[in-house]
Amino acid sequence: MDLYAGFDLGGTQLKYGLLDAEGRLVAKDKAPTPPTIGGLMELIGRLWRGLKATVPGSIRAAGFGFPGIYNLRDRKILQSPNYAELDEFALYPGIGRVIDVPFLVDNDANMAAYGEWAFGAGRGVSSLVLLTVGTGIGGGLILDGKLWQGSCGYAGEIGHIVVNADGERCKCGIQGCLEAEAAAPAIIRKYGALSGRTAPVTAEEIYRRAEAGDPAAIAAYASAGRFLGIGLGMLINLLNPGMILLGGGVMTSGELLLRPAVEEARRRSYKASFACCPIERASLGNDAGTIGAAAWAKNNL
Ligand SMILES: [Zn+2]
């Protein structure tokens, strides 16, 4: 049986697993993200040896999804908002020292989009957009059956398209980014402003309060959903995708965010284009990046 390894690095965890040719994760696990890049390379080497010992001789290739701006030509992460240790690190020589099969690296959200397209809710769709809404907003594009990386590798930064010209300043320095208006911190900020409460609260707790009828909580989600919908409308008019998939922690809020987002997208896009673009939940959850990285290596090496 041929297997493919996938690694999905986050700020707190490195998720990894083995994918078979049918897209099933036959093994998966996670480890805490080491604080240094040297520690990360050591960890990858150790996990790799463990995987090989489990299934001798059958792992054909490996894929890595890393958070940050990945440069295709230099094959480096230029800048990682959540794990600065990656910045400018020579990834291919570094990983090549600890892994002894062909491997590929790309941006983590791109890998998640590829996973949903290859083996998740986007299977069989030729062009789709994936957005993951959590503490930030990540995105990936599949166009005409191919991952759209852009000319330098930076495509799919959907969290940083501007949806509110006079809006909040984003972590990236731009004002009014989708991420600054619709991710979990925006929901928390809006809830604080609307409720007048100053005690720290999570987006999940605000969700529970909304379910219980708290009008400020409902309005905070509705505001985030509206800005999300403005972004979706842009994507629909620009790309005419066959599907938009929404994943990430905030999407577990279900209809609270989704309903206003879909309603706003409908109001802000061409009727014909909206009509051929179902907006649905992604299906692979936390495994999307691992599955996508492994599938990317499988299909491109
Ligand atoms: Zn931004």
Major sheet summary line: 5 strands, mixed
Parts with pLDDT < 50 across at least 5 consecutive residues: none
In which range does the helix fraction lie? 25-40%
Structural class: alpha/beta
Strand content: 15-25%
Strand order of the largest sheet: 3-2-1-4-7
Radius of gyration: 19 Å
CATH class of the largest domain: Alpha Beta
Straight-line distance between termini: 17 Å
CATH topology of the largest domain: Nucleotidyltransferase, domain 5
Shape summary: globular
Q: What is the CATH superfamily of the largest domain?
A: ATPase, nucleotide binding domain
Tell me the series of helices and strands, N- to C-terminal.
EEEHEEEHEHEEEHHHHEHHEH
Query: Helix segment count?
Result: 10
From the coordinates shown, what is the CATH architecture of the largest domain?
Answer: 2-Layer Sandwich
> What's the rounded overall pLDDT mean?
96
Each distinct ligand: zinc ion
Give the tally of β-strands. 12
Domain module count:
2
